[in-house]
From TrEMBL:
UniProt protein name: Uncharacterized protein
Phylogenetic lineage: Bacteria, Pseudomonadati, Pseudomonadota, Alphaproteobacteria, Rhodobacterales
One Pfam family hit: GHL5
Organism: Meridianimarinicoccus aquatilis
InterPro entries: GH, GHL5
Gene3D superfamilies according to UniProt: Glycosidases
Amino acid sequence: MTDLADRLHADADAARALADWCAKTLNSAETAFDGECEIAKRLGAHSRADGSATFGFWTPELLDHRVSDGDVFLEVLSPVESLDLTRAHQDVTFARVYVPVARYEAHTFCVVDGMIAGSRDRVGDFYSLVWRDAHGEWHRILDPLAMSLPFGAFAPAELYDLDAMQAARKDLDYYAELREAAGGKPHKFDPPCNILQIHVPTATAGGTLAALTRQFERLAERFASDLPLEPSDQLYLGYDAVQLLPVEPTTVYETGPDFWQEDPKGIDYTTVSLTRPDTTNWGYDVVIAGMATVNPVLLETGRPDELVDLAAVLHNFPKKRKMLIVDVVFGHSDNQGLGALNPHFFAGPNMYGQNLDYRNPAVRAILLEMQRRKVNFGADGVRVDGAQDFKWYDPATQTMQHDDEYLHQMALLPQEVAGTAFRPWFVFEDGRPWPQEDWELSSTYRAVTENMRDIDPDVFQWGPLTFAHNTPFIYGFWLSKYWRIREMLEVGSNWISGTANHDTLRRGTQVSPKLNINTRLGDTKMDILDKAYDNPAVSMLTYGAFPGVPMDFLNATSRASWGFIRNQDDKYGVKVVAEEAISLTWQVDEYSYSVPQNFRRLKEIGFETREDLLRFFEFLPALVEVTAYDLNVIPDLLNSVEPKLAGPSYFTAQELKHIARAWMDDMHEYCNVSNSVSSLDPVQTEYMFELRKYRRANRWLRNNLGPKDHFDYMQPIDGRTVFTCLRHAPDGKQTFIIAHMEGGETGDFDPLRLPIPGLDGFGWNLRLRTPSIGSEYIGGPITLRDSMALMFERDPAAS
């Protein structure tokens, strides 16, 4: 007998009671889905103050394999010696106990006394469900609803004390205020004025949620003390909300090593080689399992409390509390998800991996429960990735149908934190009929908002200039998108606006530099890309003219690099890097490459200079295409190049995979915002900060343009695109913006003398100018050039 066996005691009666309750719930519920929703709340692991814990699993695979009750157990694993979650690698011996379970059809339950639940200060017991086949082989069923996964979604979960985590929140007063203001009803979060989008691993030098929390704590202290704001401070300030790219567990290394590798010593003990998860990912390669908790790669301490801490520091921000928005990905699973979930979760392959079976009542209920638990970390808003991918197959019509009912259920899901019931604000990314070939022309970007107008008028979607395929550095872009801009002005009040986000910036780095590039944006490709996605004239329109809610991407406003960052691929890693190779032209110059800490892995392989790597990248994409990505042929062709390519002495398939991994890891480090702090332009960051403050002080700008408002481009075009916009506030105040988007200069003219209805008369004052316009200009004739813009204000009451 082990100490663990002495400590744990199975409560068979309580487990049987849960199974009986499950049967009654399913048999008495109005629909199977209603019943599964109730049961989903009991799934996963739940610790109790008395030291007991309940466990629930949805296990249809046990029915598929006809596994009897006597071969199914809860596996509890407890470290015999100290387990430090901050160590890069350690070999730890775990004591193991198998606990009998109670089942009803596809549901399995267990109740155990004496369990240790993890907390901020201690590591708890680990668990999974296991079953034994006719050959005596053991199979493990992981908990998809786990709330702590220190070693990722493909390892046993940790029992976690969520009640203690919630009770220790530092934003309890925030929720008390919401509860009091709601007057006994669930609080409904309104849309924010603007949003800062953040990728946690590249947002700070530390690359964790804890590091990001410290950043906002520092900003809060400086802001509360009215200390001068440095450019690096201004990047994060002036926003109502912070939206994180997905923080769920993602894929793992395809060919290993696993973060949890066991060396069994027998039934009672097992030795596990533990590696701290260290994958790099942009966040969207999810496996669905573990969606309720936090990716351990983002946790400095290995404790999910770090997400609560970030929510609290935002909720307590001085002078103006900030919202936290989480980005959830339930529209697909990477193929690796097949190894983490039972087959009943999936409905077949798609371009990303696997479709989910939304029509299965249990799957539907579990996905919603995952969402509920994630939001309860402290999110005030939810952004739903790829909502056009939530589909089900209709055999009657033999077509895929959009599951709008499921999207409704997502938006109406009730939440409760610290005794406060609430409903988050919702944003959907939905470009249907994407991926239909004409989607850029035929998508309205309003399918969800129109379907949900009567249910929740505050539901938002990403607008057309926010969706992926936008390249504002190609000549003709702004006139070609003018019809979309007109839509924004007329119906964009429930759209997210802005051209720079994780998707648009990534697409920009994949554009061929041989296209008709707007060279007026900068002297180099890097300058052009940076200014295109942090453009002062575009920002003037976004914040001073366009309806909706503006969103900025931190990597764009800091002029840091960005791209498709994922180092887990083995089979297609070389192909992915070949597709990303063009970003070397857009984001890395000779000087940047030469900096000692940049691209150190590629330099070690033999690509000592940028020109060495560029020459290799000129061959690789072409060979990937002409060989149809044949890794047996590509190395031979690379070895035959004359003069010889830099890099390894001899190319092999394995060496190419090594190069691909090095590129991804080096680019991940290169994209970190901390690398750009020293080169920030204080004039640009101050200008952007002032724009955001203006928008927050004039929230009426979120509304669609009214009958007296004006938006057009100056005619004749004469080789340039210059937009003009006149808007009227409800109190009679007027805002006039003129923005030079692209092309040649205008020649000398007075913007306030243009023949625009409502513009004539006196009383106009210059409110904001883009950085390239000198401070001596306060009005009158001016020559506008690319990316210049002016904002004037007039208050009839004051005049």
